[in-house]
Amino acid sequence: QKKMILDLDTGIDDALAIAYALASDEVDLIGITSTYGNVVTAEAGQNSLRILELLGRTDIPVYLGLPHSSTTDHFDVMQVSKDIHGVNGIGEVSLPTAPRAVENKSAVDFMIEAARQYGDDLIIVPTGPMTNLAAALAQAPEITALVGNVTFMGGALTVPGNVTEVGEANINQDPAAADQVLRSPFNLTMVGLDVTLRTLLTKKETQLWRDLGTKSSVAFANIVDYYIDAYAALNPQLHGCALHDPLAVGVALDPSLVQTIGLNMKVETEAPFAARTVGDVDRLDLPTTNVQVAVNVDVPKYLQRFMHRLTALFAH
Ligand code: BDR
Ligand code: CA
């Protein structure tokens, strides 16, 4: 069985990523690390604890990561994040504060220790800024050769960004960290806006959860309906909310859900193209590539699997 660490800025689609991982028998979620983005890092940790409590998985440890990007000393949640995920990150649905606390160990130390312990069996799935992973890489560069795969949600290769013309939200929070990770020897899979904007959920699906009538199915229906309404207001051309972060989990577990192209990539760190994920011209001639970039996705297969797994999880 594969081991997985989710590195989340727990947000609504991050919460769906937790549910997808817990609903997947082929993987053991060994811990959740927390980052900033949709909410501040401490709140991301609390939201992860709340979601785990809701899903009855109080055995999974939650760790706090760094509070801001590698090139700043402060982080404020952007207004657009509050609009999409709600001020509390989970669609203004009030879930009780979890009775347990986050772990004392830092997210970065946990990642490094897990890489040493599980090696090739470990998949790290960052679905927020990659500040924690870049810090782990700086502290213990040997983990790049140990970890099986890093499947991250972020970036945009063939489509525009969602927070700037070229910048996707997660990469845009810390372009320098993302650049360090992409240019490292990690075995990487990029699940960016190229594919995540094609996997959309509507109220037809959340109604099925609501009809189940369990505590978790109704809570998730309420949380995701907030996200669907926000998407309708901000992206009326889309007809549903994008399942960004759970797609990264789906692809990490079954790469056949997407078509990829192999590239050596970098992230622009300077204006005017900061946060753009792009081929690294300095490494174009290398015989090997370290990033598989998802450029096409089997939408019906993924959506069916997503609904099948989450509905079964929420049913009991
Ligand atoms: C990404 O940004 C965050 O708001 C979402 O949770 C997702 O990880 C999409 O650009
Ligand atoms: Ca996220």
Automatic annotation (TrEMBL):
InterPro entries: Inosine/uridine_hydrolase_dom, IUNH, Ribo_hydro-like
GO CC annotations on file: cytosol
GO biological process: purine nucleoside catabolic process
Superkingdom of origin: Bacteria
Stretches that traverse the bilayer: none
Protein name: Nucleoside hydrolase
Gene3D superfamilies: Ribonucleoside hydrolase-like (3.90.245.10)
Keyword flag Hydrolase: yes
One GO molecular-function entry: purine nucleosidase activity
Keyword Transcription tagged: no
